[in-house]
Amino acid sequence: MRLIDTQSDPLRVVEFLEADIPPYVILSHCWGSEEVSLSDLATRYDDAKEKKGFAKLVSSVRQANRDGYGYVWIDTCW
After folding, report:
1. Which residue from 43, 47, 56, 67 has the highest number of Cβ atoms inside 10 Å of its Cβ?
2. What is the pTM of this model?
3. What is the Cα 16 distance to its own chain's centre?
4. Per-residue DSSP letters for 28-57?
5. Share of the chain above pLDDT 70, in %
6. Are 36 and 48 in contact (CB under 8 A)?
């Protein structure tokens, strides 16, 4: 399972094996134009930051961190 680390800056995707999956929150939302993909985060981070969906992604990750979660699963990034 691939999850976004809520404490990383820049955002970092971490892959876990099924037996090692930590607690996480899920962001599922209405998709808009310019959503950020896993590929964007992994290989085109500077371009990802320019997409409309990046602010939504960062906001969700920050909120999860404030709520005590170390990881987020987001449907546009998988």
Report:
1. 56
2. 0.84
3. 14
4. -----TTPPPHHHHHH-HHHHTTSHHHHHH
5. 95
6. yes
- Contacting residues for 20 by C-beta, under 8 A, at least 6 apart: none
CA–CA distance, 5 with 41 (Å, rounded to integer): 12
Domain of 11 in residue numbering reads as: 2-77
The number of folded domains in the chain is 1
pLDDT, tens digit, 9 for 90 and up, residues 25-34: 997 777 778 8
Tell the burial category of 57 from Cβ atoms under 10 Å away from its Cβ (0-12, 13-18, 19+). Answer: buried
14-25 tens-digit pLDDT: 999 989 999 999
In which residue are the tokens 């590929």 written?
A: 39
Give yes or no for residue 40 having a pLDDT over 60: yes
